[in-house]
Amino acid sequence: MKLSAPRRALARVTVVLSLALSLATGTAALAGAAHAAPVESGSLSFSGDPGDYISGGQSYSYSTESRDGFNASASTDNRVVSLSVDGANGDWWSLDLAAPSGKALTPGEYTGATRYPFNGSAQPGLSHSGNGRGCNTLTGSFSIQRAEFGPNGYIHTLDATYEQHCEGDTAALRGEVHISRPAPPAALDLGLDVALDGTAGSLNGKATVHGTVSCTEPVRVTVSGGVTQVRRGVIIRGSFTTSVACEPGAAAEWTAAAVPVGTTPFQKGDVEVEARASAVDPNYGGIAEASETVAVRLGKG
Question: What is the pLDDT of residues 44-84, one digit of tens each?
């Protein structure tokens, strides 16, 4: 069943307003959530009793084999799984399954669920909505038969069934979801080295430092930090930033110049260098970092 454009727009606005309300009331609906990624193999099927508001008493079935679009992610602590389905026929649905606060989703029965993300810390959370329909309040339960996760909210496999009752009605919606992905790739790992020598520019007063970075995926790495020197009771500080292309298996060299704050230039002698390397993980979208603080000897530049 397809929605007309006005109804679809209204439904999207309702979702946005619900999210805004959750944030305003201190419920961090998306806290710790990871980037939703396409599902290579997945299915969602559900049906409702006569009188169930969400399903309208009908049955629905979607799968990647039928060219329906699936996106899914877990929270970084594996407590919440979120699924969205864009049917090839124009239908759209979302499903959230959440363990109580402080617990990861593992195989087992989750009873006494209420509407996610308003379920509170001690109760499981559940929410199935879409096609312009959602519950203001709900009760229900779900069962996890299999749940395997990778880093940063990557869902490897998920098999679950659930039952939802809107607004305290006896009529139920019952569904099941299956997700299967390849084994998760390793998260991006960075290495950072700061060389123990540098130069103090005699003309511009800058401190030039250098080193290498290493990576486990092809990425562009940003190296930034600060240089601190004490000369005759005066503290000299400056910051630096640069970026380099990094390939796995080979160290990439970086060089950066720290501009002193104020009128006192960096001078020959010892300095403290605090450096940080960062890059976007190409597989998971998060930020990988490495840091190092070392004493560096500046020579004349």
Answer: 999 999 999 999 999 999 999 999 999 999 999 999 999 99
> Is there a single domain that holds both residue 262 and residue 176?
no
Residue 19 confidence class, pLDDT cut points 50, 70, 90: very low
DSSP letters for 152-204: GG-EEEEEEEEEEEETT-S--EEEEEEEE-PPPPPPP-EEEEE-SEEEE-TTT
Domain that holds residue 73: 5-180
Q: Are 52 and 27 in contact (CB under 8 A)?
A: no
pLDDT at 35: 59
Same domain, 153 and 212: no
- Higher local confidence (pLDDT), 192 or 283: 192
CATH number, domain containing residue 215: 2.60.40.3930
Rounded Cα distance between 291 and 13, Å, is 43
Tokens, residue 170: 């006896």
Q: Which residues pair with 276 in a beta bridge?
A: 224, 291
Model pLDDT for residues 99-152, shown as the tens digit of each residue: 999 999 999 999 999 999 999 899 999 999 999 999 999 999 999 999 999 988
- Amino acid identity, residue 220? R
Pair 148, 223 in one domain: no
Pairing of strands 125-130, 108-115: parallel
**226 and 154 housed in the same domain:** no
Angle (CA) 264 270 272, round 5°:
85
Q: Is residue 57 included in any domain, yes or no?
A: yes
214 within 8 A of 190, measured Cβ to Cβ: yes
Asked if 215 and 145 sit in the same domain, the reply is: no
- pTM confidence score: 0.67
